[in-house]
Structure formats: structure tokens, C-alpha cells
């Protein structure tokens, strides 16, 4: 047993696995606890893997899925981008060879006035995905300049 594994957290993940196998819905608190216990090192990798495998086989309802997404968000740092009253969107991509959607979707959505944040990693090597595809454009020093009719349209804060 690892030094950080908590017996109570271990029992909780086992109970969550049993509940999902029996077709029961997990509470928001239960899902949140699973994620936070795992992030904090109180649950062993193999136990979280067992829970994830169970969920993959039995599924999650909308409330469980929302609770899981919110728990993920709570484990990281948040960036405040512009006006909180105005939504900021991200076209998520795992990247890879052949991902052309991002190259079309991001500029089209941004041209409609919606702030778009595109976060990409370069850890994929040759298959760097959209961030690699944008690099030649950014390296060329090209900059978009609005025409007089576009200049009066509200622009994203970024």
C-alpha cells in the first residue's frame, strides 16, 4: 500500500464501482470526491482505472457527467479571459495528422465576434495538430487588419 493511499477513500471508490455496476446513479458529491481523492493521491491508480472501466461499460447519466466535468475543472487553474459576462469558447482537438476542422472552425467563429481561445500542445511530435498548422502563419509576421466597415464591429478582447 502506498504511503498516500487513504483506506477511507479506497472504500469510497469501491462503493462507487459497486453502485455503477448495480445501475445506480452517483451523487455529485460522490463523483467530486472520487476525482479529488485521485488527484490528491488518496486513491491508487488501479482503483481509479477500475472505476473508469466500470463507467465505460455502464455509462453515466447527464448529472454524473456534469459532476465529473465540474470536478475536473475544479482540479486545475482557471484563466480569466476578458469580460466574465461574455462567453469564451474553445474548439478542442487532440491534434494529429488530418485535423482540418480546427483550421476552419476557429477563424469562422472568431469572425462572428465570439472570443476563441485555442490551447494546443506540441508534445505530439510530427503530429502537432492545429498549433503546428498555425505556426507558418504566425511566423510569417502576417497580421489581420480590419477594413473600415469591419473596424466598427465589436472585436474580441484578446
Automatic annotation (TrEMBL):
<dbReference type="InterPro" id="IPR035902">
    <property type="entry name" value="Nuc_phospho_transferase"/>
</dbReference>
<feature type="domain" description="Glycosyl transferase family 3 N-terminal">
    <location>
        <begin position="15"/>
        <end position="76"/>
    </location>
</feature>
<feature type="compositionally biased region" description="Polar residues">
    <location>
        <begin position="142"/>
        <end position="151"/>
    </location>
</feature>
<dbReference type="Pfam" id="PF00591">
    <property type="entry name" value="Glycos_transf_3"/>
</dbReference>
<dbReference type="InterPro" id="IPR000053">
    <property type="entry name" value="Thymidine/pyrmidine_PPase"/>
</dbReference>
<dbReference type="InterPro" id="IPR000312">
    <property type="entry name" value="Glycosyl_Trfase_fam3"/>
</dbReference>
<dbReference type="Pfam" id="PF02885">
    <property type="entry name" value="Glycos_trans_3N"/>
</dbReference>
<protein>
    <recommendedName>
        <fullName>Pyrimidine-nucleoside phosphorylase</fullName>
    </recommendedName>
</protein>
<keyword id="KW-0808">Transferase</keyword>
<feature type="domain" description="Glycosyl transferase family 3">
    <location>
        <begin position="87"/>
        <end position="129"/>
    </location>
</feature>
<keyword id="KW-0328">Glycosyltransferase</keyword>
<feature type="region of interest" description="Disordered">
    <location>
        <begin position="129"/>
        <end position="158"/>
    </location>
</feature>
<dbReference type="InterPro" id="IPR036320">
    <property type="entry name" value="Glycosyl_Trfase_fam3_N_dom_sf"/>
</dbReference>
<dbReference type="InterPro" id="IPR017459">
    <property type="entry name" value="Glycosyl_Trfase_fam3_N_dom"/>
</dbReference>
Amino acid at each position: 500500500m502506498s504511503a498516500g493511499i487513504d483506506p477511507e477513500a479506497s472504500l469510497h471508490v469501491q462503493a462507487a464501482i459497486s453502485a455503477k455496476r448495480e445501475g445506480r446513479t452517483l451523487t455529485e458529491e460522490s463523483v467530486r470526491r472520487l476525482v479529488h481523492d485521485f488527484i490528491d493521491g488518496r486513491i491508487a491508480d488501479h482503483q481509479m482505472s477500475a472505476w473508469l472501466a466500470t463507467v465505460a461499460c455502464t455509462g453515466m447519466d447527464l448529472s454524473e457527467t456534469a459532476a465529473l466535468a465540474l470536478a475536473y475543472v475544479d482540479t486545475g487553474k482557471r484563466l480569466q479571459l476578458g469580460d466574465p459576462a461574455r462567453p469564451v469558447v474553445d474548439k478542442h482537438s487532440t491534434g494529429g495528422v488530418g485535423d482540418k476542422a480546427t483550421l476552419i472552425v476557429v477563424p469562422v467563429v472568431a469572425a462572428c465576434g465570439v472570443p476563441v481561445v485555442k490551447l494546443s500542445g506540441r508534445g505530439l511530435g510530427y503530429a502537432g495538430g492545429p498549433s503546428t498548422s498555425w505556426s507558418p502563419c504566425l511566423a510569417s509576421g502576417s497580421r489581420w487588419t480590419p477594413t473600415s466597415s469591419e473596424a466598427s464591429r465589436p472585436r474580441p478582447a484578446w
